[in-house]
Amino acid sequence: MNNRVRFLFAIILCTVKVNAFYVEDKNSYEAVSDTVNYPGVEVVDSLNSGSGLRRLDDVQTGSIYAAKKTELIRIRDLTINTSTNNARQAFASVAGLNIWESDGAGLQLSIGGRGLSPNRTSNFNTRQNGYDISADPLGYPEAYYTPPLDIVERIELVRGAGSLRYGTQFGGTLNFVLRKGDNTTPIAVRSRLGGGSYGFATGFAELGGTAYQTNYIASYQFKRADGWRPNSQFEMHTANASATYTITPLWWVKADYTYMSYLAQQPGGLTDNQFYKDPTVSVRARNWFNVIWNVASIQLDGILSDRTAIRSLTFGNLSQRQSVGDLSRINQADLGGARTLIDGQFYYFGNETTITTDFDFLSDTSVLVTGVRYFRGETRQRQGDGSAGSDANFKFTNPNNLEGSDYTFPNDDAALFAEAVIPIANDWRLVPGIRAEYITTRADGWYRRRIKDLAGNIVLDSVIDEQRSRSRVVALAGIGISWKPNEGLELYGNATQNYRSITFSDLRVTNPNLVIDPNISDERGYTLDLGTRGTLFGSVSFDASIFYLRYSDRIGEVLRVGGPPYYLPYTYRTNIGDAYTSGIEAVVDLNISQVFELSESLPTIHWLINGSAMRSQYLESEAASVEGNAVEFVPAYIIRTSLSAQWSRVRCSISTSWVGEHYTDASNAVYTASAVTGSIPAYSVTDLSISYSASWFSIEGSLNNILNAYYFTRRASSYPGPGIIPAEPRTITVIAQFQF
């Protein structure tokens, strides 16, 4: 591990030195934009739009977003609690997102859309500043690290059509763009201090500026809490640093590095009876979770000509996650003894290089983005007995003779992709795209099969060696179309193929609550979008669309009953069958002050509402009990609305979310004794935030879950459960910010 750390950062240092060698004029610093505009394509400056709703520019360096369903969230425009990463508030303008709430501090983001599992946002290609930050984008796409909103400038979200540019996920792409240093001064300082309910405390410091052709920023955040349930304390540290150096007016290089670590005690899940009797209890006191994340990147940008730009992004990850605790069914008491310890180590590096150019076609100017990607990753995952204590001890009891498994999962991925924006008439544009990907997923290791009787005596103990390798070529294609009859209206649509690889967790896991089908295979399908968006009367912005998401061999979970001697029910993960999810998504932002022509002396008031109505069904399945059932994680409705006001230096926002009942497995089970599967009842939750800002000082307050609703959003098969994970009750947080 240490050698890999040295190797990763040696590459970064060498790249910086090589690029710095070509400096021509140290006095020619110019501010650098992320976006290059092309004369043949109409580009809406979303970042500076006065509308409450924003979308991504049609063309950016290395990416095309025209005719796609996109959302852009600018953090500084929101009146929310950024210190706790409250996802309900941060994503209030995005329709149809199902959000899991596993902790009150936003340690991990878990969102899913259009019937895709929210688990660690694994159905999105999750990125930071354009590069991957999940454990392995194909083999293990779970995002253990989420950038703190305190360091985020904006969030970019591209739905299913993003698979052509960024990868094969059905959900699309989620990209966190981090803040840059102040470009008007050599040194700017910002700090945040605060606290709140259940022992929550946080501190944040940021230093940035621009000097000697270099824009730089460095930040550090600390937060901790005791938690609202027993056995739920945590402590988290995040540090980030980046610098952008202008080599010449046409070439610049950027380097960044992020470190995150957290240690959390996990109070475990509850059965349905336990939750409805008292959701504040904890029946697990020995469960702990530890994450250490290191990601870094080097980005080289250049203008090759007045029509062509190049971007080359090299990135790497060297991280680990560890969990120790009792994973037995939550309806069984923890009687002590050895705990289950799972240790995962993740190492990867990759490069994406794109060329963006405009060209003449049909007497007009079009834009073409071509690119290549190479990725090499390796994951090692071990499982065995941990200590019998109750502390955060992440050492195996028998490291040379593990009781569970020891696997290495190498993964190679090489891709070529291309997309274009082609004007075909005065107001019409065609957006074709293709992607070809070569993927190799391997598993090399062993697992132990051990069976015990009711008295805990071992009746079978055998070690099974296993080597698996799956190589495949995946070709995806898509086409979009956009019609803009005027500046305030656009009709858009696209049809895009999607693909999702089996993950390392699908290849091998040892969990008493979950069994994996040894013949599980990849998912394939496609996404259709048709929508309209724009601005009316200068005061109403909207985006309304319909979608259809089709899966072949959808991977999911069904409830089965085990064989002798216990005949206990368990969750079985396999290719359930063919299914679809369809729905309507709509977002409307109304500037009430403009509609009613209120006096400028009165507050500026915005009302935002987003909603989705979805339907889903399994069309074909080998399991007769599944065919015709609803697809899991598909609420019939999701509605979020917020009312925000700004008057002088005071801002206030109140928001409410309503989420309909939905299932957590393909069997559509409503209740099980283990609580791992079952329905998620409908719930609603309301949040309030208020802030006061001066030139150098501001204070923010938030009251989340005002009505103190008791509800839950997920059932976990392993950590942080198993069982029902109750959502956080009413909490209050106060943050003071100073900036100079």
Explain this structure.
With 740 residues, the chain is mainly beta. It is built from 6 helices and 36 strands. It has one domain: Maltoporin, Chain A (Beta Barrel), CATH 2.40.170. It is globular and about 75 Å long. It starts with a helix and ends with a strand. The model is unreliable at 1-51 (pLDDT under 50).
Topology overview:
Layout: H1 2-20, E1 59-60, E2 63-64, E3 70-74, H2 87-90, E4 97-99, E5 111-113, E6 125-128, E7 131-132, E8 152-158, H3 163-166, E9 173-178, E10 188-196, E11 200-211, E12 214-225, E13 234-248, E14 251-265, H4 272-277, E15 288-305, E16 308-325, E17 340-361, E18 364-385, E19 405-423, E20 428-452, E21 458-486, E22 489-500, H5 504-507, E23 514-516, E24 523-536, E25 540-561, E26 569-591, H6 592-595, E27 604-621, E28 637-647, E29 650-659, E30 662-663, E31 679-680, E32 683-693, E33 697-704, E34 712-716, E35 723-726, E36 731-739
Parallel strand pairs: 6-9, 23-26
Antiparallel strand pairs: 1-2, 3-8, 4-5, 6-7, 8-9, 10-11, 10-36, 11-12, 12-13, 13-14, 14-15, 15-16, 16-17, 17-18, 18-19, 19-20, 20-21, 21-22, 22-24, 24-25, 25-26, 26-27, 27-28, 28-29, 29-32, 30-31, 32-33, 33-36, 34-35
